[in-house]
Structures are given as C-alpha cells and as structure tokens.
Amino acid sequence: MTAPEATARPRPETTASGVAATARGGWWGMAGSVANAVFSFLLVGLITRAVGAQGAGVIFTGVAMFTILSNTCKLGADTGLVRFVPRDLAVDGGRSVDALLRTALLPATVAGTAAAVPLVLFPSVATALLPQVPPADATALIRLFGLFLPAATVGMVLLGAARGYGTVVPFVGVEQIGKPVLRVLIAIPVVWCAPSVPALASAWLLPSLAGSVAAWFALRRCRAQRPTPRRAAGADVPWRAFWRFAAPRAVSSVFDIGAVWVGVILLSALATSREAGVYTAIGRIVTAGTLVQLAVRLAVAPELSRLLAVEKVAEARALHRVSTCWTVALSWPLFGVVACFPGTILSVFGPGFTDGALALVVLCTASMVNVAVGNAQTVLLMAGRSCWHLTVTAVAFTVQLAVGVLAVPAWGVLGAAASWGAAIVVENVMAAVLVRTRLGFTTVDRGYIRALAVGLAVTTVLVASRLSEGDTSSGLAVGMVLGLCVFGITLCRYRTLLRLGDLVGALRHRAA
C-alpha cells in the first residue's frame, strides 16, 4: 500500500454505502442479540430453578463440552466462507462459490463425526468430565450430546456461507432467535412435568438439529436470490488459500469458545458442580452485555472483507471507527448497570447465586476493555491475518488456563472469573495494538472520546445510586431511570460527533 492510499480520506458516497449496509445488518443483529440474551436468561433461570445449582452445573458442563467441540470441528470453515464468498462475488461474480462450499463442508462433516465417536463409545470420557455424577448417568448424558454433534457442526458452517452472501438474517434467525426460543418452549413443559437433568439436556439439544435444517434451506434461498455462473472447466479453485486462512482460524476458534466455557469445566473438575452452575449464570449475563458488539460484528465482517477485496482501505478504516463508536456508546452503560448491582441481578436465578457478585464485577470490568477496542479481532480476520489472530487467542487462552488452574481450587467462582477477565484484557489489548500498528486501523478520534464520555456519565450516575440505595431492587430501579435520562441527554448532545447522523443519512440515501 502506498502512502497516499494509506492516508486518503474515503469518498462520502462509498463510506455511506458501507455504513448503511452495516447498519441494516446491525439492526438485525441487535434484535437477534436481544432475543438471544432474553431467552438464554430464561432458559438458565428455568434450569436452575428446576434442578438447582448442582444439576444446572452438570447440564452446562455438557453444554460447554458440546459447544467447544462443535466450534472446533467446524475447522474455521464458517469464518473462511464469510471472508471468501463475498470476495469471490465481488471480484469474480461468484464462480468459485460451489467449490468453496464443498471445500468447507466435507472436512467439517468428517471432523464432527470423528469427535462424536469417543463421546458415544467410551464411558471414560463422561466420568472424567463429570466425576461427581454416577457413571451410568454421566455416560448417558455425554452420549446424548455426542449424537447431536455432527449436525450442529454442519449447521454452523452453512450459516457462515449464508453470511458470506451479505445477509445476517439466517444467522440471526437460527442461532440468536430460533434456537433460544425453541429451547425455552421445550424446557417449559419439561420443567412442569418431568424436571430432570437428561430431559433438560435434550431440550437444549433438539433445537440444534432443527437449526441445521433451517440453515440449509436459508443458504439455498440466498443462492437462488443471487445465482452465480458455473465455474469454467479447469478454473482454479482457491482451496489452498481457503485452508491457509481457515486452519489457523480453526485453532483460534477453539481458544475463543474455550475462553467462554473452560471456567465451567474447571469448576466442575476442580471445585463443585454447584459453583459451575453459578459461573454459568454469570457467563450468561456477561455475554448478554456484549450483544451490541456482536450485532455490529455480524454486519461489519462481510462488509470489511468486501471493501478490502476491492482495495477500498480508507473506507474500511472509516467503517471500523464508526462501528467502534456505536459499540462503546451503547455497551458501556449496560456493563455499568450490571457492575453496580450484581447481587440484585444474580438473585433472579435463585438463592445462592448472589455469591458470584464479586466475580460478576470482575468480568464486567474486563468486558469494558473488550468493548473499548471495538471489533479489532474481526479486522484481523477479514484482512486475512488469521495467523496473527491465532497468536493473540493462544496467548490469552494460555493466560486463562494458567490463572484458572491456580485460582479455581482456592477461590472457586471468583478464580474462574479472574482467569477469564485476564484473558479478555490480554487478548483485546494485543489485537488492538496489531490492528493499529500493522494495519493502520485507528479507533481514537473525537467521536470515540465522546462515546466514552457517554458511558462514563451513565456509570457515574449508577455509582451514585448504588452508594445511596445499596445493591437493592429499588437502587437498581432508581439507577436505571436516572441512567436512561443521562444517556438520552448525552447521546443527543454528541450524536454528530458519534457520527450517528451519517448512519441516518446513509440509510435515507439507500432508500431513495
């Protein structure tokens, strides 16, 4: 890249187009993230109320194992499709899409099947994961998760292909709305009629199969709406480039999802299932707090890939700055609410869960660092730097595992939270430094400073309410009312610098 290219300002019409495309996907992602957070909350509440913290810990240990394996077995193919499909559509009219799908799906299917075999055939795996559960019950539970593993793996790869076509609707509809809603709808009669660990585990697993079928139909519809020419005989298929990118991503995805769930496994193995259940509830709350960031990431990723593929680097950098402002302005107040009233929020899950209040504060603080750097890791991946991303996630996961092994036996839930928080900070700071120094993607400008100011203003009001009323329901209510007032005033005051006006203008331009 030459110096003029690196410093050139993006043209208003191209920037508006990218912002508008991201905004449309972002609103869908936001709706899905809210639905996912609400129904995941409901599901955890149903399970903890039905079988207690210990039973919930057993179920979510299986969920943790299943989630880590399914994300491992997709081999990074879903992210590879998010990057390569829009590039092929933009540059070559989509001639290699069929070959890309075959390249991605076959290895993921084989890997998912191979990983399911030991879960189904070897009881020793179950007893190692659930040492406090009777061997027969542990074997039956882990075997149940193994049977659903291949289908869930394929479904996630298919959704990655659909995202490559520039739409987040299938992903949102299946992963963020369909599965969470179905899980709650199935769990309610189970809790009412026969509340048991195997039955509730089945309620969690059944929507995975339905989601994979829905993902296949969604991809067919995407391809029908945008037909592509057949690949000429003898044309080069970019499978080497695909797996050079996807292979490091396959490993880093293990670290990514492992960071979320390894605490549950460590607590189940080194502490108690009850503490694993409490930690699961904390994890659901923290994950819900990142809903804005996830919504923006879903929309930004394919757009960044497209812009970089056609060498519109300045527009890609502008898109990253704008999306970071949105994320910070809308996410910091959420974490402020949770960090100021952790006991009140955790009490929703039942008695005993308030013991994790301090752990929740630790994770909220670390997550605010995560939000502050924006989607730096998405920039690394869409720029093709999957090896850099692998290095970042590997270092962070090593930190988490080392801290967790030392801290969990002594501190329990707080130790698991401290290990995850340390990993979050290390991973995001490293990614932000690489994106800034090696790729030239900056985040700090006047709009970013104002976004931080919005978050800090709301947090200050929440802290004052906590000091006045304590960690109580009335304190939470007062804090949220005052916080919403301050949020609305400051957001209106700084809306221009936050570039929200650019978003509205871009959407109007597209509509016209």
TrEMBL record:
Question: Where's it found, cell-wise?
Answer: Cell membrane
Lineage, please? Bacteria, Bacillati, Actinomycetota, Actinomycetes, Kitasatosporales
Its transmembrane ranges are 27-48, 55-77, 104-129, 141-162, 250-271, 321-345, 357-376, 388-411, 417-435, 447-467, 473-492
Question: Has UniProt tagged this entry with the keyword Transmembrane helix?
Answer: yes
Q: Which InterPro entries match?
A: Poly_Biosynth_Transport
Protein name, entry field: Polysaccharide biosynthesis C-terminal domain-containing protein
Write out the entry's keywords from A to Z.
Answer: Cell membrane, Membrane, Transmembrane, Transmembrane helix
Chief place where the protein resides: membrane
Q: How does it sit in the membrane?
A: Multi-pass membrane protein
